[in-house]
Amino acid sequence: MVQKYQSPIRVYKQPFELVMEAYERRFPTCHLIPMFVDSEVLEETESEDGSMHQVQRRCKLDVDAPRLLKRIAGVDYVYFSQENTLNKRERTLHIESHNETFSNRVIIHELCSYSAHPENEDWTCFEQSASLDIKSFFGFESTVEKMAMKQYASSIKKGKEIIEFYLNQLEEEGISHVPRWTPSLDAPSSSVTTKPVCATPKLLHLELPVTPAVSIPVSTDANDCEIANAINNDATQNDATSNDANSQPDNLMENQTGTPDDKLDADYIKRYLGDLTPLQESCLIRLRQWLQESHKGKIPKDEHILRFLRARDFNMEKAREILCQSLTWRKQHQVDYLLETWTSPQVLNDYYTGGWHHHDKEGRPLYILRLGQMDTKGLVRALGEESLLRHVLSINEEGLRRCEENTKVFGRPISCWTCLVDLEGLNMRHLWRPGVKALLRIIEVVEANYPETLGRLLILRAPRVFPVLWTLVSPFIDENTRKKFLIYAGNDYQGPGGLLDYIDKEVIPDFLGGECMCEVPEGGLVPKSLYRTAEELENEDISLWTETIYQSASVFKGAPHEVVIEIIDAASVITWDFDVCKGDVVFHLYHSKRAPQPPRKDPLVGQHSSITAPGGNNIQLIDKSWTLGLDYSMVESPLTCKEGESVQGSHVTRWPGFYILQWRFHTMPGSASTNLPRVDDVLASLQVSSHKCKVMYYTEVIGSEDFRTACFDVQSLGSMTSLESSHSGFSQLSHATSSSNHSQSSSMISR
């Protein structure tokens, strides 16, 4: 497995030329890096006008490794090759290094760049990426990889300290300014000739791409790579304790709100995200980069992405999986607009015993829930589970908003809140089965979509019945979350280690013996006159799961799911919006003059006879006796959609008749030259637990007079187009997620 690392953009508040002067002082050796034994210049070129300077060095390292491992490997030193290209005209330095030692067993590659700040020419940006691929190493592959990751992380921080050391040294010597390069009036252009010292074609790369504010998606680190990194360019990599300005790569999409304008400030990570290790920074940048490149909808904020990474111990693959699922869920249920659209029913305002109350000693928003005074059965009977869930979601959304506000107020990152639960009054009526079921469902949804938002849970005045409730609920709570629970029985919260350790005396609620008036409702029994029947609750359009504009369907191997749409007017527009929740599918659009036969019901089992696979909604309409090209025709090229992708598109119909939307199970193609399966195919198949895919879809037909085209592909009349309808629900979907045309077809794909 290739281990990768990607740094954020580090910013020195010194001019590029001064930083370059400090950088050159690290050679030929540096006493601040004990493992850096020596370096020698192998080749060097310079353009006639002096604007381009290229150097190739060979660096000798004494790797910090167990002596036994060195003896087994048969080496005392490790050698790296480093190529530097300094463009004084563009004010950039590109550094590329790789290992020479054990290059047939271990591949270490590192790229670094210094450049003038794009917005402040007196500052200097630094960016670094590296990769490590251990193919074989005498049976010590895992050991070498772990050792490399650890050493590389420490070398990143060391690199910044080294540059700062030499900058301070220059200042002590009275050197505070290095003039910029300016072209001489009688000097030839750098593109004409070069002045070789030991010129080789390999070194004459006079122009390299400059990426002043963009990060490349890479991750972990490498043993020797880390060392080479520390030597070659350990420039400004540091944990979040520096005074450099940190510029995250690539601005987030316009529809992401709340991103700080001062991302280039030196303490952006420390101020808004907290103390992260270099490897944690790398995971955040890579996941954020992946979202920018692949997800066409609303990009979550950095702090929210970080929550999902923390929830999976910075395992990027696992974090990406749950984050994509959460983004799909938020889009499906329009959670981003919940605070603007949700109005609590009066019964909640009167009888729901919870509310926000100041903040704790760490600046976290404080939420108080008087669970013992709450009539859970009455609330469920009066409102239903769905309304309670929606209310809890609105609380979590409000919590995210308050965390952002407190981050600005207190000047430090606050990404979670504290919850105080008072259990006085809790008894057996709170163990009502439907109420516990509703609680478990709420916990499940919150755990999946709001990870790492609970900083601490203070449970006060726990009665004897509490262990019973805890036994029922605790298995559904993440282990990391359970570690944040502090439980006090009786009045123990008033003693040492109690409430005063976490909440200022001035804000302790009056019902807990404090002097602060708390506006949380006192609750009480919900009048039975407010109870509603199951039918009334089902008919109310508030469901988060069952009553959405989306429909779900299962797609099986050999059993596609199909939807038929009858078109009367030839110029109509068929629109679709679907999410691939599980597996990979291929989307087709067909046209037929014949009406597909509706699914037949088996009178004995009440199932559609066309449903050939058990479990889930799956309908097949195209008769097996039909012939493609004769009975029906393909009007759009097949579109392969990966798990986690969202697809929006449309088709301007050319003929009346019946249009069939089909989602087919995607089978990986085999190699044409051999009957053996490819390794990539086998690995891909292992990621799907069964021959089943799942999609959630929404379709709509819009008359030609009811829409206006946002962008139109003129290559064919039947091309898929991005549309905005003035009357349809599809336009509402468009507001919820922005999209762009796919490069191969006009369907729009996002993850």
**Total of helices:** 18
CATH topology call of the largest domain:
Phosphatidylinositol Transfer Protein Sec14p
Taking Cα atoms only, what radius of gyration do you get, to the nearest Å? Answer: 31 Å
The fourth-level CATH homologous superfamily of the largest domain is CRAL-TRIO lipid binding domain
Structural class: alpha+beta
Number of domains: 4
- Biggest pleated sheet: 9 strands, antiparallel
CATH architecture of the largest domain: 3-Layer(aba) Sandwich
Give the overall silhouette.
globular
- CATH class group of the largest domain: Alpha Beta
**Which percent band covers the strand fraction?**
15-25%
Commentary on this structure:
Helix content is 27%, strand content 24%. The protein is α+β, with helices and mostly antiparallel strands and 751 residues long. The chain folds into four domains: 3-180, 2-Layer Sandwich (Alpha-D-Glucose-1,6-Bisphosphate, Chain A, domain 4); 266-333, Orthogonal Bundle (Helicase, Ruva Protein, domain 3); 337-529, 3-Layer(aba) Sandwich (Phosphatidylinositol Transfer Protein Sec14p), CATH 3.40.525.10; 550-598 and 618-667 and 691-718, GOLD domain (Jelly Rolls). A hairpin with a 4-residue loop joins strand 3 and strand 4 (52-61). The longest helix has 32 residues, at 141-172. It is globular, with a radius of gyration of 31 Å.
